[in-house]
Amino acid sequence: MISIFRRPASSPPPRRLTLDILRYNPAEPERAPTLQAFTIDEAEGMTLFIALNEIRAHQDPSLQFDFVCRAGICGSCAMLVDGRPALACRTLTRDLNSHITLAPLPFFELIGDLSVNTGQWMRGTAERLQTWIHAVDRVSIDEIEAPMAPELAEAIYELDRCIECGCCIAACGTAQMRPDFVGAVGLNKIARFRLDPRDQRSDEDFYELIGDDSGVFGCMSLLGCHDVCPKQLSLQTQIAFLRRKMARLGFD
Amino acid sequence: MQIIHSDVLIIGGGLAGLRAGLAARKRGQEVIILSLVPPKRSHSAAAQGGMQASLANSTRGSGDNEDVHFEDTVRGSDWGNDQIVARMFAHTAPKAVRELAAWGVPWNRVQAGDHTAIIDGQPVTISESTTAHGLITARDFGGTKKWRTCYVSDGTGHAMLYAVSDQSIAAGIPVHERMEAVSLIHDGSRCHGAIVRNLMTGELVAYVARATCIATGGFGRIYQSTTNAVINEGIGAAIALETGIVPLANMEAVQFHPTAIFPAGILVTEGCRGDGGLLRDVDGHRFMPDYEPEKKELASRDVVSRRMEAHIQSGKGVRNRFGEHLWLDITLLGEQHINGKLREVKEICQHFLGIDPSRQWIPVRPAQHYSMGGIRTTPDGAVYGLQGLFSCGEAACWDLHGFNRLGGNSVAETVVSGMIVGEAIADFCASPAGELTVSTALIRDCGRQAAEEFSAIARCSGPENASQLLRDMQQTMSQQVGIVRHGDALQSAVDTLKSLILRSRQIGLRCSRPGANPELLLAWRVRKMLKLALCVADGALQRTESRGAHFRSDHPQRNDADWLKRTLAYWPDAEQTRPTLRYEALDVLRMELPPGWRGYGARDAIDHPDTSRRQAEVDALRQQLASADRNTRQAALLAFRHHLPAHLRGDNARLGEAP
């Protein structure tokens, strides 16, 4: 019934994979960054999570990388897989050539090898864009909650699904030139809170946060973010919509 | 060594730690949170299906209240939990959901009118009232009498974690990321903070605080097959154990989730079965009704997992090259439902199995999922043995779950216990006992000891390999301390683990790289994980009964007469190779719901001598107060509200319930 378990009578020998991994340890600045090649035998259902752990367990215990959930939901393991930002944990080696190149996400502070400091950047962005509900009214938690249209709740969740993996920033042309650009992750969050009636901020408030070139007007519409988002968020639509709203406000 | 001061140090940046930190911060305490990873990447994000709270908004939840939630939780625990805690929890859970709603969690809402649900394999039309339209809805989960599990599609934990994390950012609480607490600073009676290792640089820092709270989650990674994230290694519990004074309770109570995808062990939510999904065997036969005619696929997790393993043992498993599994069939729910309410499940199936679950069955087999046991605390979250130390969430044995946790009760516990324990922490800081009186010499000594521990590992050139020891431990635990246990296998597991502990003192490193050194870290951690594994295995070996998730094929009955007690595991001497076990009795005479049959699973328990007496008392009280309102009746049976912070004591409003 399930195709991956339907195997031909005599299986061919496993592929031998070569992983070229960009190595650099900031604690050893005297050693220049290098691409180091590791070879392993592919196994059925092998993900880059499995492959990298196998390399660390058997070949090089010093190799640094970040995995947490290993299920594609936490956003820890974004890296450049053959030059393209992706979540390593859910990338199956069978979808790649036998020669694979892995590099850390660009833009973010490098911790070592494939590990980058997305957390610090995301926290800074959250502080800067104030990505929380701004409510003036106090809510009593003993009382029945305020109703919300079911479809609105679902629409908010659609935008709330961002996992802050950093892929959109790594794929962003503007972020390459403007280190202060909030990127698709930041703009999507503004779209999310703007949609949420529990957040009592006005469009003027949001304009203060993103109404300049480090915000929504910095986007050059290359939309690499949209192409690589592992959660397939509607980043193109959100950014375009926000820009129209904010531009109108700028003219008023 | 650098010393950082704060009023409150929270170790762990998941939902429990964040929520406790927020509570303390709102009371004016200065809070620092330590986290292994950026907090939004915590394992809380993996809670998919939902959070139990008796809002009773939807038609199938109608009639629900704290009493029903309490009873479901106690039955689920197989009477192993603390009923006071279960009461505090059931009472606070609706408040927690409503607070989260105000913080922006996009809970799925009731849609007025008719909709079709799949119940027991059949489409059923359910009609929702217009008065409930737009209120928070709920889905069905195992072991519950009502549809009580509030949800956000199947990304509930993610939505909750982001909302609470953003609240902690709004409150200006600093989170020190990629920091791992490696030992507690204590003088044998009072905890003063922790020695902490920077995972990026390897540097040790002392964090000194008036109150310290461990909220580091579970320890599933001592098992080979687990749904847990790779960071769930239980180090928070281990450093508490290593004080020699703090006990870990009920470590043998380990939950196996029925539906982990096979063989990767990644969770697919109980919501699949709650929404109508079925379990099938090699013949495509739906087998759960054969075993559990009442609750079928929706008996509690311990029961379903055990039935699945038994069914595989009876020759009905599906064989593939990795071993045997069963099928989870959600095709009957339809593509639209799956795309809307089970989309993470769909993504997981696509990416890891290459299948479309709206057309194909999902290969599943039970895997380790949750640690009911942990750092033993009082109902306030104060840790046994050390003043100034608190714990909450999965890391703690607050004892909400006893020997089996209901689905949807753990993500609920994280925020509820955070709300309660955070207040207790603030109370402690405001009390005379909360004054900081630590000597710099003690901090220095603790720091020196921790540094010495790491350098001894780095210096050792022994023959052992840390990843090999880790694998051996994980294999032993999965094979011999799993779903079905037996005295012989448990004895063999204890022997194996003891020898692994000895070998773990002879680990030689291959890499001496400065800064973050993953090999050094693993060598250090595996020694701690082995101690936890021994607490689990030895606790399981000694407990000669079956209760909840702890099932002994050589002692298949629940034995209230001898085992209605909590295991407390201590590790007083660093050189010992197995824990010192003590026991803490549960008092039947104070139970609101005396032990009985759970409503599913076996019904052959050996009674406690006090059970019939307490049951008679409870029956008499209920009769006497038959005309009183349910809250008065409940208070006469088991008063609990005084344990809650004043602002959490109020009644919960519900549709159709008189205020």
What secondary-structure arrangement, pairings included, does this model have?
The complex is a heterodimer of chains A (252) and B (659).
Chain A lengths: L15 E8 L10 E8 L6 H11 L19 E4 L2 E4 L11 E5 L6 E3 L2 E2 L1 H12 L20 H11 L6 H4 L2 H5 L5 H13 L7 H8 L13 H5 L6 H17 L1
Helix pairs in contact in A: 3-6, 6-9, 7-9
Chain B lengths: L1 E10 L3 H12 L4 E5 L15 E2 L13 H11 L6 H20 L10 E7 L2 E7 L20 E2 L5 H15 L4 E3 L1 E8 L4 E8 L5 E11 L20 H7 L6 E2 L4 E8 L9 H4 L3 E3 L7 H4 L9 H16 L1 E3 L2 E7 L5 H7 L1 H11 L8 E10 L2 E3 L12 E3 L4 E2 L11 H22 L9 H20 L6 H15 L6 H18 L13 H25 L17 H4 L1 E6 L9 E6 L25 H14 L5 H8 L22
Parallel strand pairs in B: 1-2, 1-10, 2-7, 10-18, 17-19
Antiparallel strand pairs in B: 3-6, 4-5, 8-9, 9-10, 11-17, 11-20, 12-16, 13-15, 14-15, 15-16, 20-21
Helix pairs in contact in B: 1-4, 1-11, 2-3, 3-11, 5-15, 13-14, 13-15, 14-15
Q: Can you summarize the main beta sheet of chain A?
A: 5 strands, mixed
What overall geometry of chain B do the principal axes of the alpha carbons give? globular
The average pLDDT score of chain A comes to 93
Structural class of chain B, by secondary structure, is alpha+beta
- What name does CATH use for the topology of the largest domain in chain A? Fumarate Reductase Iron-sulfur Protein, Chain B, domain 2
Question: Span between N and C termini of chain A?
Answer: 61 Å
β-strand percent of chain B reads 15-25%
The ordered string of helix (H) and strand (E) elements of chain A is EEHEEEEEHHHHHHHH
Which two protein chains have the largest interface (Cβ within 8 Å of the partner's Cβ), and how many residues from each? A-B, 73 and 86 residues
